[in-house]
Specification:
Layout: E1 2-6, H1 7-17, E2 32-38, E3 41-47, E4 51-58, E5 60-63, E6 65-70, H2 71-80, E7 85-90, E8 94-99, E9 102-109, E10 124-129, H3 130-140, E11 155-161, E12 164-170, E13 174-181, E14 191-196, H4 197-204, E15 212-217, E16 221-226, E17 229-234, E18 253-258, H5 259-269, E19 278-284, E20 289-296, E21 300-307, E22 309-312, E23 315-320, H6 321-330, E24 336-341, E25 348-352, E26 357-362
Antiparallel strand pairs: 1-5, 1-7, 2-3, 2-6, 3-4, 4-17, 6-9, 7-8, 8-9, 10-15, 11-12, 11-14, 12-13, 13-26, 15-16, 16-17, 18-22, 18-24, 19-20, 19-23, 20-21, 24-25, 25-26
Helix pairs in contact: 1-2, 5-6
């Protein structure tokens, strides 16, 4: 095998498949990248058993062939090479990498031992705008559970129906829901799947992402296809919690406030709440103010008043300021946010309405 590509194209291709490279503790073959050259293109593949990625680039191929080389090593080589043409050749036991005055000889593994790329034939697929999808995933990703004992909560529920995209995530302490209208390639039949949160976040951040991405589902896999990249991940099986059942049907107070002002005030008050992340929210319906306060036996007390619009009763609730900041950062592009309250021991609900509608439910802490 022998081919020549630009340093930038090689580095970009390796960065695309890097998420699929297994850790050092896994089988040696899974720590490698399979590189296969044929007919003017080179395809890069990686897999760690849970996800598989392949990406192709154009190249000057002098000799067809395939090899497997350490993903970590060749990635480090590629990113440190000068911005020039890179020639890679394989003699069956070692690969040579040459770029101007730089030359490397890298040990290789048998490409026949590398797992076959999954045979993907999606039962259903839908094409969506990647920029919109990326913005929506960013709004719910922090809410995805890191608890491996409940795999269903480590996923993001994706539904598309009547040209409405909706994403839902929860870690049982909080819930994030966002939806937006968009034209889809198939709006007649509803599309629904649970995508691992880390997968959703990583795939949309790949440098090869195009304007639109196709998402397909098989019995056990979710398949992302865009440009010359295919990203396959295991689906999360099971029934996602019905988020509508978690939402209170009534409210006793609605506080309308500026998201940026809330974030700035919360960061100042929370300086005192480092050992105890509880911040108290006191909404005064008569005075039209929201008082944020925190106290610590070791550090002291802090409070700040915000001018707001309060509809309904005066209410008080204590919330984890870390979780509130996650919410506010998710709606930072919007001017206003609504805080709906029912009681001090019932969930608080933050809402914002824009091109992407956002709902964030947060369980209170004891005052």
């Amino acid at each position: 095998m022998k081919f020549t590509v630009s340093q930038s194209a090689l580095q970009r291709a390796l960065s695309v498949v890097s998420k699929g490279i297994a850790g050092a503790a896994s089988m040696p073959i899974l720590t490698g990248v399979k590189i296969e050259a044929s007919e003017g293109s080179v395809e890069f593949q990686s897999t760690n058993g849970n996800i598989s990625i392949r990406h192709a680039i154009a190249a000057n191929v002098e000799e067809d062939g395939a090899m497997v080389v350490s993903g970590k090593v060749i990635s480090n080589v590629a990113k440190n090479l000068p911005d020039s043409a890179v020639t890679i050749a394989d003699d069956g036991t070692q690969a040579t990498v040459s770029c101007e005055r730089s030359h490397f000889r890298l040990n290789t593994l048998n490409p026949g031992d590398f797992p076959e790329f999954p045979d993907i034939d999606p039962e259903r697929s839908i094409e969506l705008p990647s920029e919109l999808l990326t913005s929506m995933v960013d709004k719910v990703y922090k809410v995805v559970s890191k608890d491996t004992s409940r795999p269903i909560l480590s996923g993001v529920l994706l539904t598309v129906e009547n040209n409405t995209i909706r994403l839902v995530a929860t870690d049982s302490y909080r819930l994030a829901v966002c939806d937006s209208n968009t034209e889809t390639s198939d709006s007649e039949e509803a599309f629904e799947t649970i995508v691992p949160g880390a997968t959703f976040h990583d795939v949309l951040a790949l440098p090869s992402m195009t304007e639109r991405v196709s998402i397909g589902i098989t019995a056990s896999q979710v398949v992302f296809s865009f440009g010359s990249t295919t990203y396959v991940s295991r689906r999360i099986e099971g029934n996602f919690p019905n988020f509508r059942q978690l939402l209170p049907t009534t409210r006793n107070a609605v506080v309308r406030l500026d998201a940026q002002q809330l974030a700035q005030a919360l960061r100042r008050v929370s300086v005192i709440a480092q050992s105890n992340p509880s911040v108290r929210f006191d909404a005064d319906a008569d005075g039209g103010v929201l008082r944020l306060s925190a106290s610590s036996p070791d550090q002291g007390e802090a409070s700040e008043l915000l001018g707001v619009e309060v509809e309904g009763e005066s209410m008080s609730i204590a919330l984890n300021f870390h979780y509130v900041l996650d919410c506010v950062s998710a709606v930072s592009g919007d001017a206003d946010v609504e805080l709906e309250l029912l009681s001090s021991m019932q969930p608080a609900i933050f809402k914002s309405y824009a091109s992407i509608n956002y709902l964030y439910l947060l369980m209170p802490v004891r005052m």
